[in-house]
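I have been asked to look over a protein record a colleague put together. Thanks in advance; the entry in question is below.
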Amino acid sequence: MPILREDKDLKSAFQNCRTICVVGISPDPYKPSYFVSDVLQSHGFKLYFVNPNYADRIILGEKVYASINDVPDDIDILDVFRRPSAVPALAEEAKKKGFKVFWMQPGAESPEAIKRLDSEGYSVVAGRCAKIESNRLL
């Protein structure tokens, strides 16, 4: 699959999604990872949270895992809230676990990860906010 840019492709990604893994979750309700996750939950998605700094804590009613590989379910959308420099290694970890769409929130875009994932046939979203797009398209 290509880099997803068209509304129909983004909408399809959401409609074919059951689980979203949010990497970089924060317990701070003023941080984007928190309020975006809150909206995604309100749309009925099952969320899994990953942040080694908050492993085993409960955020928005869900357990936080230390790594993607600890998530006990298949991942449809991997929603990334990390520095761009951390994203290529995260993408490699995610490929081992498996996912359908690798979504880099605004500010998390890594040109290296985008190029690599796209060249390997993964679906990628970059620089689009999952909260805004889900509210707009669902």
Q: What stands out?
A: The helical segments are 7-15, 32-42, 87-97, 111-119, 130-137. The chain has a mean pLDDT of 97. The first strand starts at residue 19 and ends at 23. The first helix runs from residue 7 to 15.
